[in-house]
Amino acid sequence: MTSWSEHRRRTELRGAAAQAYAEAEREMGIGILILRARASAGLTQRELAGRIGTSQPTIARWESGAQVPSVRSLTKIADATGFRLTVGLRREGQARQYLIVSIAG
Hints:
By secondary structure, the chain is mainly α. 57% of the residues lie in helices and 11% in strands. It has 6 helices and 2 strands, in the order H-H-H-H-H-H-E-E. The protein has a two-stranded antiparallel sheet with strand order 1-2. The protein is globular. The protein starts with a helix and ends with a strand.
């Protein structure tokens, strides 16, 4: 039997479904990045929470977009999942005008 996540990886979204998924990702904001980092590291929400000293429900709230973590928490998440936190700003409509800073843990 194929799991939903396995099916999702194999199935390309098209049309309205692809657009709806992209809009949902934008609404989730930073939460989708946390979810992807955690999944990439092969961690459950509970495992990530244990590594950064918080609770599983907090991770769930961050991933759903219901709450936004602090920069300190984002740095801990990056460290726990093998990433480096990079924050950037870009002027709308000006792809070449941006500011980026990497934050060490």
